[in-house]
Amino acid sequence: MALRTVVYPPGPKPLLPGALLLAFRRDPLRMLIRIAHDYGDIAHFRLGPQHIYLVSHPDHIRDVLVTHHQAFRKSRALELAKRVVGEGLLTSEGEFHLRQRRLVQPAFHRQRIAGYANIMTDYAAQAAARWPDGGVVDIHQEMQRLALGIVGKTLFDANVEDESPEISEALTITMNLFDKLTTPFSDVLDKLPLPGNRRMDTAIKRLNETIYRIIRERRVSGEDRGDLLSMLLHTQDIEGDGGSMTDLQIRDEAMTLFLAGHETTANALTWAWYLLSQHPEVEAKLLEEITTVLHGNPATFEDYPRLHYTEMVFSEAMRLYPPAWALGRKALAEVPLGDYVVPVNGVILMSQYITHRDPRFFPDPDRFDPLRWTLEAKAARPRFSYFPFGGGPRVCIGEPFAWMEGVILMATITQRWQMRLAPGHHVEAFPRVTLRPRYGMKMTLHRR
After folding, report:
1. What is the spatial distance between Cα 324 and Cα 316, in angstroms, rounded to a whole number?
2. What is the pTM (predicted TM-score) of this model?
3. Which residue of 49, 187, 199, 369 has the fewest C-beta atoms within 10 A of its own C-beta?
4. Domains plus CATH for the chain?
5. b/e per residue, 29-68, with b = 16+ CB within 10 A?
6. Is pLDDT of 78 > 70?
C-alpha cells in the first residue's frame, strides 16, 4: 500500500537548522504571533523533530478540543508536567482520567463552591489588612500567597499561607519545565546529575513535603471535614478495582489542584491589577459597582452574580493575559482539520494569547475594554474565540471556582486599596508553563 503524502499547511522555512527552535526559546509569544499573522489560521513549522500545527481559528480549536477530542492526547508539555503532578487530572489520560474526574467533580459542585465564598472574602480581607499604606509591594507575590492560602483552606482545610514563600520558590523552579520542551535530548539530560535537575528534584521534594503532610495529618485524625481531601480519602473507586485511593493517587490529585488552583488565579489577578492601574476610568467604574452592590460590606456568594462589571474586568484581563497561554494536543490518528489532515503524532498548538487578540473577534485587540463582555457582545463571537480554561471534556474542572474567586477577591481588595504601578517598574509577559510577569509586579498601594 502506498503511503499517503502529507500536505503541510504554509509556514516558516528557516534557512538555518535550529533557527525556529532558538526563536521559540527566546520569545515564544513573538514567534507564534508572527507565524499566525503571516501564514493564517492553520500554520505548520518544525521544532526539532516535531511537526507543529499552530491552530488559531475558533472553529478549528473547537474541532480539536470538542469534535475530535478522542483522536488526541495531551502533548509533550503535559508529559513533562508528570514529573511534578504525577497522574493527576491535568496529565492523566483515557478511562483513568474519566474515573478520577468523576471522583473529584463533587468538590466543585455549585453548593460546595457557594460555601467557599466566605473563606475567599476572609482571606482577601486579611491580606488587605497587612499591606502598608503608601508602601510598595510585589502584588504578584501577594496574590500567590493569597490564592495559595485559599486553595489550601477550601479544598484541604489546611493552613499553608506561612509556607507560601518556600512553595512559591519551589513552584518557580518547576516552571523551568518549559525550557525542556525546546532542549534537544532533554530525556537523556534529565537523567544526569546536572545542577538544574538537582534544583528541580529539591523543588518537587519541597512540594511533596507539604502535600504528604496534609494527607498524613488527615489520615491520623480520621475526620471527614466535607472537603476535597476527605472525599479523596473516603471515596471508593467503584468503576476501578473498588478500593480506596492510594496516598500516591491522592498526592497526584492534590498536587494538581493545589498548584493549578492558585498559580493561574494569582497570575490572572496580578495582570488585572496592572491593567486597572493603567486605566483609572475602568477602575472608577469598577469601584462604583462594588460600592453600590456591597455598601462597604464583605462580598458574599449572593453578591457574586450581581458584580457584573467586576466579572467583565476579570474576563478582559484574562483575554489580554491568559494564565494558560497555550494548549497542546498530539494526534493519535489522522485527523481532518480545515483543508488539511493532521498525521499521526502531529502536534496541535492552540494559543489563547493569539486567538484572544485576533482583531476579527476583538477589534482593536490590544485595548483593555471590559465592555467586550456584555451578553450581546459575547453572543456575537464564536465560542472558542475565548478559551482561558480550555474546553471540551477536559475543560478545567476548577473553572467555576476560579471565576468566583477572581470576582470576590477583586471586589474585596478594590474596596480597600488603590494600586498604581511603582515608578520605573518594567512589565513584561513571561511565558513559561503559565503567563507570569517576568519581573514580578511592584505596586504602590494607597488606602481608600
Report:
1. 14
2. 0.92
3. 49
4. 19-447 (1.10.630.10)
5. bebbbebbeebebbbbbbbeebbbbbbbbbebbbbbbeeb
6. no
